[in-house]
Amino acid sequence: MDRLVTTTFLEMKSPSQVVPLEGERRLEIRRAEVPCPELNRFLYVAVGGPWWWYSRLVWSREQWRAWVERPEVETWLGYRSGTPVGYFELESQPGSQVELSYFGLLPSFIGLGFGPELLSAAIERAWRLGPERVWVHSCTLDHPRALATYRARGFEIYKVEDKIEQLPDVQPRFFPEGD
Q1: What's the Cα-to-Cα distance from 52 to each of 92, 132, 151, 155, rounded to whole Å?
Q2: S-S: 155 plus which of 10, 40, 79, 178, CB 3.0-4.6 Å?
Q3: What is the Rg, in whole angstroms, of the alpha carbon atoms belonging to the chain?
Q4: Are 139 and 10 in contact (CB under 8 A)?
Q5: pTM for this model (two decimals)
Q6: What pLDDT shows up at residue 178?
């Protein structure tokens, strides 16, 4: 199915741009220290299904393994009372930059205020890697509050693109009956 998708690219060029998160921290943030393709695929499908994340669905186990074993890639999870709430992937890239390549919450935790906290942890970790730039992109297939959440933490828009994308005929879903 063809669909017009607007992609917004955002960046920070200095840690001074970060808007600090106010309030109590409720999440425990932990890195997935052992690369695990099954974990990353699970998170990709469970978090991204409602938002039509589809590009990695065709990846083989070997492609997932190659991705997560790259030293430039880090996978982090946010936990609440021992239960995963969401995750983010960071990719260190040439030119002294870090991309927040994937970020999101499991559907059961959307709307509970965990997004800004998890995003703040992602930004803090990205800057600890020592880049000159941290960037992310969001699109009209993401959660409706995604763009506002990125901007509220200090990201600034530097480019917007419209493109017709060929989406799968069926929306990716974690459960057969829907998310």
Answers
A1: 25, 31, 22, 23
A2: 10
A3: 16
A4: no
A5: 0.93
A6: 62
As beta bridge partners, residue 83 has 80
Asked if residue 75 is part of any domain, the answer here is yes
Full residue range of the structural domain in which residue 146 is found: 2-19+26-166
In a domain, 158, yes or no: yes
Instruction: State the Cα–Cα distance between residues 67 and 61, nearest whole angstrom.
Output: 10
Residues of the chain with pLDDT under 70: 178-179
| Total structural domains within the chain | 1
How confident is the model at residue 171, as a pLDDT? 80
The whole-number pLDDT of residue 24 equals 86
CATH number of the domain where residue 72 is located = 3.40.630.30
Tokens read off for 141: 């297939």
Neighbours of 170 (CB within 10 A): 8
